Amino acid sequence: SGYVDDQGNAGQGGITFGNDLTVKNTSISIGAPDGTGNWAFFGAATSNKKAVFVNNLMEHTWWIFVNSNGRAGNSFWFKDNYFLNMSGKACRRNGGVYDNVDYSTDTMYVENNTHIMAQGSVWKFRNFPIKWIFINHNTFINCTGTLLETQGVQSNQIVTNNIFVNSNMQPFHSPFVGAEDRSENDRDELPTGLIDVATLPADMEQVDRKFLVEANVDFWDSKVADLAADCNNNATSGFSNWVNQSIKMNDRTKGFFDDNTTYPYLTEGIWYDKLPTFVNTADLLTDQLDAVKTFTLATVDTTSTDILAPWRVSSTEWHLADFPIPVNLAYTDADLMAGGTDGLPVGDLNWFPDKKADFNTNQATYYAALVAALNAGHTVLSVRELGGVVTQFSLSQNYPNPFNPTTTINFSIPKSGNVTLKVYDALGKEVATLVNGYETAQSYQVDFNASSLASGVYFYTLKTDNFSQTMKMVLMK
């Protein structure tokens, strides 16, 4: 049943919280005997509270599981949850986990969750700024809509160690029909992809853009590679300019990440472009992928009333918990097993219990490395602490040199302090920031990837409060 809160807002059909809330070890299926459901199950009734969701199985939703409900300053923490069958209402935009409605959220912390079969945007930010966003060690399979909706205006984002399989599939055209579609997409009406960064509008605080993207898996089956082409061939909704959103990022976003002078804290690390060899995906990558493709093609027409058919429904009226979980998303790929920024498997670590125990034990250290890399403008895996007792400053010649397109630079500092290691072209223009932050006294090793640069002579400069040295290197493609 629904409710009306103290400001006259109606809509939730489950639990609203006016104080801090913790939900653990539950099975929640949203539905009603007539086959309908309400807009959301959890909703905030006041501001500046913390809601924590740990080890829950949540299935079936019309719109969203958790709604900020127009309240400012709340923090939402999602850990170790299994989200399934996020569908039920005839609206292609709806069917996910969280919606940041009307006001800014303080912190979004999404860690070690698995998401399977979603028809809409899974994490919706609605172009409202969030102070901190952590999306770390999650797995997504068959999510047709945008995974991180309108993340383009955010800063202080960390998207690391995730697996994205057959997600972000809904084709895009500009302009979208209707104000609702437009408000839930990129501000410049560009395809978003998995990662999106837009220019901050004038009415938002102009802050340094900080975004760390590293050690994520991306994969799209060949079955969904032609979705935009199908829409164009059929002139769906009267348009023939549909484009693919099954991409890492659009050209504008890629340009921002590559512009280290203007955006020194937008950092893109390694991507693993492959499908993990999962132990058991049941029919998710066969029959269910066909169903997702059919739904996706039908709902590019904004007038469509199609609903993504739920996977393994046990009742036509009540949606009952699908337990035990029928898939095993562990894998055996050697590169992915140690491919995370923390040296652990990429994706939801709940599929690797021994590795999850390691993560829990060392979580503070792993997150400190992520935040340090975010604030320094470099990737976690590209800067390695070598330790040792150091008695003098040193900057080594890069190796190999000449190089194409990667090379390694070693340096040592005998005194802790602020350190920068920057790369310049022959005209003195800064082209890359490899280190920028407080570092402890020891030796370091830094990897430099120059794949976006042209062949030529470049210079790299190490600076501290008491030392500066420049060396020359040659990029030969």
The neighbouring-strand order within the major sheet is 2-5-8-11-14-17-19-21
Spatial extent as radius of gyration: 23 Å
Portion of residues within helices: 10-25%
Structural class computed from helices and strand pairing: mainly beta
- Outline the biggest β-sheet: 8 strands, parallel
Number of strands: 32
- Give the number of helices: 6
Nearest-integer average pLDDT? 88
Distance linking N and C termini: 64 Å
Instruction: Provide the low-confidence segments as ranges.
Output: 1-12
What's the short story on this structure?
The chain is mainly beta and about 475 residues long.
Kindly list the characteristics that best describe this protein.
mainly beta; eight-stranded parallel beta sheet; 6 helices
Strands, helices and their partners?
Layout: E1 12-17, E2 21-24, E3 27-29, E4 40-44, E5 50-54, E6 57-59, E7 64-67, E8 75-79, E9 82-86, E10 96-99, E11 107-111, E12 114-118, E13 123-124, E14 132-136, E15 139-143, E16 148-149, E17 157-160, E18 163-167, H1 179-183, E19 211-214, E20 216-219, H2 227-233, H3 251-258, E21 266-268, E22 271-272, E23 278-280, H4 287-299, E24 328-331, H5 334-337, H6 353-376, E25 383-387, E26 394-395, E27 406-413, E28 417-425, E29 430-439, E30 442-449, E31 456-463, E32 468-475
Parallel strand pairs: 1-4, 2-5, 3-6, 4-7, 5-8, 6-9, 7-10, 8-11, 9-12, 10-13, 11-14, 12-15, 13-16, 14-17, 15-18, 17-19, 18-20, 19-21, 20-22
Antiparallel strand pairs: 23-24, 25-30, 26-27, 27-30, 28-29, 28-31, 31-32
